Amino acid sequence: MRSYLGLFFIAALFSWLVTPAVRTLGHWLQAYGQADDGREHPHIPCLGGLAILVAALAAWGVLLFLPNDVRARFLSEWRTMAVLMAPGTLVLLLGVYDDLVGATPWQKLIIETLAAGMVWWAGFRIVHLPIFGYSIHSLFLSLLLTVFWIVAMTNSFNLIDGLDGLATGIAFFVTLSVFVVSLIQGNHFVCILAITLAGALLGFLRFNFSPATIFLGDTGSLFLGFVLATLAIHTSQKSSTLLAIVVPFVAFGLPVFDTSLTVVRRFLSGRPLFVGDHDHIHHRLLQRLSPRAAALVLYALTALFSLGSLLIIHSTGNLVALVAVLA
Q1: Distances in Å between the alpha carbon of 123 and those of 75, 119, 146, 216?
Q2: Which residue of 56, 157, 160, 269 has the lowest C-beta tally within 10 Å?
Q3: Distance (Å, whole) CA 290 – CA 281
Q4: In the chain, which residues have pLDDT < 50?
Q5: Are 49 and 223 in contact (CB under 8 A)?
Q6: What CA–CA distance (Å, rounded) separates 322 from 170?
């Protein structure tokens, strides 16, 4: 456990050091974020996802020179990590392109679907729906569910990224819950990725919390949603119990809830699904709270969702788990 904590703080330190350089790069490229009303923020660049990725890679580089058990596990899983780098990089590049040039909704959907399909092809698949007592034997159905989950979660984090530090903080709590679940399961691959990502997010939050000096941008929000959705699938593959589906779903509770409301609201009002609005949860909170207070409230809500997901681990039956979900 001490080695994991060391990896966490190394990633946080690198993120804290790298983010100002990425911010400078964003200014140089004139990659500026947009406010909810569509206006550019002339002084706030939006390539924050690059800082998180560079910090994670640097932390893993340091890990290679540390003689401990986490290093041995990291080396034993390098093939799995390499396989995931291709679709992850594809989504990251999509985000960079969108922040610099601007991608259409359909371009995003096509690339995200392709990347999700690559994850499925690599063997990271949804194969159990234990909450319904059902195992998926159809490869086509498994492909559909896997792609839907990854694309939905990728865009959920993109939609929730409308307030300084919000998506970063939510991703931090979700990542910690995924780490704890994976640690209990003995899934060291996800443990290493999750704790590194959590550290990088914490270091980045120093610059992203209100008043932000750098945004995640689509570079960060799309990448984070994609990676976390993929890690959740890998976690679920290590268990055939109710834990497999319920825990990731509850941990993702706030993005799932906000995105579901958004889809239903736009469908009922006849508005295009890909056109933004000002009726997300954080918009409603901003009517009564400051940006900082609104973010803290949603952090607390996400922490409760994450705690609920961890409590499910200790439940001994489906009824207890269901009560935890409903609560």
Answers
A1: 19, 7, 11, 29
A2: 269
A3: 14
A4: 36-40, 241, 244, 316-327
A5: yes
A6: 23
Find out whether 33 and 219 touch, Cβ atoms under 8 Å: no
In sign, the C-alpha dihedral spanning 176, 149, 216, 94 is: positive
What's the CA gap between 97 and 86, in Å, rounded?
16
- What is the rounded distance in angstroms from the CA atom of residue 193 to the CA atom of residue 189? 7
Residue type, 59: A
The two three-digit tokens of residue 287, written as one number: 């009517």
- Token pair recorded at residue 95: 């985000």
Supply 54's token pair: 């560079």
Are the CB atoms for 207 and 243 separated by under 8 Å?
A: no
The pLDDT tens digits of the residues spanning 113-129 come to 999 999 999 888 887 66
Look up the pTM and report it. 0.85
Lookup result for tokens 């055939």: 240
- The closest alpha carbon to 61, from 25, 93, 14, belongs to 14
The answer to whether the beta carbons of residues 229 and 91 sit under 8 Å apart is no
Model confidence over 148-193: pLDDT tens digits? 989 998 988 888 887 889 999 999 988 998 898 888 878 888 899 9
